[in-house]
Design brief:
The structure is a homodimer. Chain A is an alpha/beta fold. Chain A has 2 domains: 256 residues, Metallo-beta-lactamase, Chain A, CATH 3.60.15.10; 35 residues, no CATH class. Helices cover 24% and strands 24% of the residues of chain A. Chain A has 11 helices and 16 strands. Chain A has a 7-stranded mixed β-sheet. A 7-stranded mixed β-sheet of chain A has the order 7-8-9-12-13-14-15. The longest helix of chain A is centred in the N-terminal third of the chain and has 10 residues. The first copy, chain A, is globular, with a radius of gyration of 22 Å. The model of chain A has no long low-confidence stretch (mean pLDDT 95). Chains A and B meet through helix 1, helix 2, helix 3 and helix 4 of A and helix 1, helix 2, helix 3 and helix 4 of B.
Chain lengths: 311, 311
C-alpha cells in the first residue's frame, strides 16, 4: 500500500523510430513518480534530452531496456559517464532481456572510464514481476525482429478513502484519532473500539502504464494492458504501411488503437514515429485511428503527460 | 596540386566540454571541403547534430578521434548504425590513437547490428602524415590525462596565378592555349614555344587547420600550427582556472591565445567549453584573452567558419 497521493508523469524524451530527426530524438520515455525517475529505453542522446527537460539526469535510478537495437540503448554509456563526472554515488539499476549483463559489461569498458557508483545489470525473463514496494514492474515478450520485452508499471493499491463525516457521526473527534485510523490502527475511546474498516472505504487501485517497446500488437500485450491508464505503444507507421510494419516487426497506429480498445485502456500514446513523417504529417498518422480509439495522442519530444488517479 | 578554388568550411557540431548542456553538445568538429565531410571527434549525439546542421551525416567519409574519452567517440556507433539504416555502401575510415582498432571492433558488436558498408579503423602514430592527395592530415601528441592526438589538416599547394595580361602581351591568344598553359602544358605558336612558368606565378599555399583535441598547450602544437589559418583549441576554462586546467589536462582560453600568438595563426577558435560557463558568461572566457590574440572566437554549436585562401 502506498501513500495517498503521488505525482506520476510521463516525460517523452525521444519519440523517433530507428534514427533521430531534428525534431525527435531516438527512444526514451521517463516516468517520474515523486522524486524518482525511471527510464524506459535510453537511446543515444538521452542524457542531453534529460538536461533539456524538466527532469534531472542525476535522478534516474532505474533503466529498463526493451531490446538491443542501438536506438534503444546507445545512450547508456554517456549517461553513466556524465553521472560519474557529476560525482554520483548512488547505484544505478539496469533491467532488460537476456544478454543485458554482457552488454552493460561491454559498455562499462568503452574507452578510459571508471564509474563512481555501482551499475547493476539485471536480466528479466518473460512474465517476470519485480516488486519495488510502491510499484511493480512486469516484463512480457514483445513481437519484434529481435528478442525484446514490453513492461507494465503497476502502482500498489492505495488506502481507501477516509469517511470523515461517518467518523464524526460515530463520535470520534477530529485530531490524532483520525490520523491513527488513517494509518490502519485501532483506537479506543470511552470503552468503545473503532477499527479502520469502520471509517475507511475499500482500497483504491494504483495507476498502470504499459510500454510496448518496438513490437507488433499482440494478445499478450492486450492482456497485460487490461484496464490500464496509459499504453505507450509502438506507432512507427501510418495505417497504410501495414506491410512494412509486419516486415520490420513494428506497429501501425491503427494496430495500436485496436490493441488499446481491446485492452480498455484510458489513453493511448503513440511513439517510435518513423522519421518519414514530419510533424506536419501527424494528422496522417492518426486521422482514421481516432475513430477506433478516440483518446489517442501522438507523442512529441518533451511532451509531459500527467497520469491522474481513476475515480 | 589541387584545383584553383575549393570551398572549405568548419562546422562546429559540439562545443561542450566533458558532458553536454542544453546549448552545447559534446565534441565534434566537421570540416567540409567541396563534397566531402571530415569529422574531428564524434561525441554522443553527433549524428543528430549533423542532421540539424547544413551537412548530411551520409557525407562523412573520414572520422579522426583524438582520444578515448566518451565525449569524443560515443557518437560513432549511432552514426554507423544510422548510415546502415540509410543504405550506405561507401566505406567509412576512422583514424585515431593506438587502441582504436579494438574500440571500433567493440563498437561494431554492440547489440543486434551488421553494418552495410566497410568500417576501417586505422591507428596513427605520433607525427604520422596521411596523404589524401588534395590534402594531408598529420597527427601529433596531445598533452591530456590519457593518450591522445592533435591533428593538422594541410591542403596541397595550389597552382600559381595565371597572368593573363602578360600572356596577351606575349601574343598568346585567349582561348584553348590559355587553358593548356593553365593545366601546365607547353604550347607552340608560329615557331615560338611558351612554357607555363612564363605566365604562371609561384605556387600558392593551401589552407591549414589544426585541431588540438583535449590538451594542455604544448611546444609541439605551436610548431605544428605555425602560420596556420585556424587553430581549433581546447578552451575548457577561463584564465582564472589554470590550476583546474592543469589538473585535468585541459587549457585555459589564455593558454590557447598564447599558443595561437606564438604559432602566428590567423584565427583561434576555442571549443570544449566547460559546462560551468553559460552562453552569457562567454565574455568572462575571453575578455582578457583578446588582448593577447585579438582574432579569438568562442565556438558555438552550428557555428560555421569559412576558411578563405591567404592572399
Amino acid at each position: 500500500m502506498v501513500k495517498d497521493m503521488s505525482q506520476l508523469k510521463i516525460v517523452f524524451l525521444g519519440t523517433s523510430g530507428s534514427w533521430p530527426t531534428p525534431e525527435r530524438n531516438v527512444s526514451s520515455v521517463a516516468l517520474k513518480r515523486d522524486g524518482e525517475v525511471i527510464l524506459f529505453d535510453c537511446g543515444e542522446g538521452t542524457q542531453r534530452q534529460l538536461m533539456c527537460s524538466s527532469l534531472s539526469f542525476m535522478q534516474v535510478d532505474k533503466v529498463f531496456i526493451s531490446h538491443f537495437h542501438g536506438d534503444h540503448f546507445l545512450g547508456l554509456p554517456g549517461l553513466i559517464q556524465s553521472m560519474t563526472l557529476n560525482d554520483r554515488e548512488k547505484e544505478l539499476l539496469i533491467f532488460g532481456p537476456a544478454g543485458l549483463k554482457g552488454l552493460v559489461n561491454t559498455i562499462m569498458g568503452l574507452g578510459y572510464f571508471n564509474a563512481s557508483f555501482r551499475v547493476i545489470a539485471r536480466e528479466m525473463r518473460d512474465h517476470e514481476t519485480l516488486d519495488f514496494g510502491e510499484y511493480t514492474i512486469t516484463s512480457y515478450p514483445a513481437d519484434h525482429s529481435v528478442p525484446g520485452l514490453g513492461f507494465v508499471f503497476q502502482e500498489a493499491e492505495r488506502t481507501g478513502r477516509f469517511n470523515k463525516e461517518k467518523a464524526l457521526e460515530m463520535g470520534i473527534p477530529e485530531g490524532p484519532m483520525f490520523s491513527k485510523l488513517q494509518k490502519g490502527q485501532i483506537v479506543k475511546m470511552n470503552d468503545k473500539t473503532f477499527t479502520p474498516d469502520m471509517v475507511i472505504g475499500p482500497k483504491r487501485p494504483g495507476r498502470k502504464i504499459v510500454y510496448t517497446g518496438d513490437s507488433r500488437p499482440t494478445g499478450t500485450l492486450v492482456q497485460k494492458a487490461k484496464d490500464c491508464d496509459v499504453i505507450i505503444h509502438d506507432g512507427t507507421f501510418a495505417p497504410d504501411m501495414e506491410e512494412k510494419a509486419i516486415e520490420y516487426g513494428h506497429s501501425t497506429t491503427l494496430n495500436a488503437a485496436k490493441a488499446a480498445k481491446k485492452a480498455r485502456a484510458k489513453t493511448l500514446i503513440l511513439t517510435h514515429i518513423s522519421p518519414r513523417y514530419s510533424e506536419n504529417e501527424e494528422t496522417d498518422l492518426i486521422k482514421d485511428v481516432k475513430q477506433v480509439f478516440p483518446s489517442t495522442i501522438v507523442a512529441r519530444d518533451f511532451m509531459e503527460f500527467e497520469v491522474s488517479y481513476r475515480e
